[in-house]
Amino acid sequence: xxxxxxxxxxxxxxxxxxxxxxxxxxxxxxxxxxxxxxxxxxxxxxxxxxxxxxxxxxxxxxxxxxxxxxxxxxxxxxxxxxxxxxxxxxxxxxxxxxxxxxxxxxxxxxxxxxxxxxxxxxxxxxxxxxxxxxxxxxxxxxxxxxxxxxxxxxxxxxxxxxxxxxxxxxxxxxxxxxxxxxxxxxxxxxxxxxxxxxxxxxxxxxxxxxxxxxxxxxxxxxxxxxxxxxxxxxxxxxxxxxxxxxxxxxxxxxxxxxxxxxxxxxxxxxxxxxxxxxxxxxxxxxxxxx
Length: 290
What we know:
By secondary structure, this protein is of the alpha/beta class. The chain has helices at 15-30, 35-42, 46-53, 61-70, 75-87, 103-114, 133-143, 149-162, 180-184, 190-204, 256-272, 276-289, and strands spanning 117-122, 173-179, 209-214, 228-232, 241-246, 249-253. The protein contains twelve helices and six strands. The radius of gyration is 21 Å and the shape is elongated.
């Protein structure tokens, strides 16, 4: 579930921009105003308001101030929101790679970078946060056979750098459910797979990483249609979100019903998975067989 689509030269939204967008929607609705009303009273283009409220664009300071004044926001609260705007332009380590990455993949990295915890279900691949460099290289090359060497190298570098979230002083809490297909499929040859399986065992030994295998013997389960990620954030203003990826494209889902539906699916898959000790034994056997 690692995006490999066309290159889009757009800035990825940050958590702060997403937070600001959500707050502006709430303030407008709380003021009893429709977007059309805001257009009439501020002369701000309707499409601009739409994009601002969905974190698709970063508003100028004067635009944000005009909206906050219209919504009757007190000065102290305005100062907080203007600070959010200032912080929303802060990008992480991946800024240098932005011209070469699809927009949605940029967004995933930005949100992943700030997430406190992440749940992922992978049906075909080892999760990106747990891939070795050799596995990642062979996987990307296999999924995108026509990729040139420079782009391939950048993709591998990005994937390795993403894993820094697991090495922070307070690391991300990761719970990964991985289908047996991802363990059995030989990517890059026997040596690459043996290294990858040993890496999984090392990762699973860390207290902040929970890794479970969903065996073929579990039969049909709700995760079979595809992979997905749930991201949770420390700040109360930042609601959890779901990221899905497929041949038809990738998407973020933020509605409460969508998040609840995917959480129920994750819990159901987890019920089909091997225990952590049994998963460790399973992977150890995979090392021998690779």
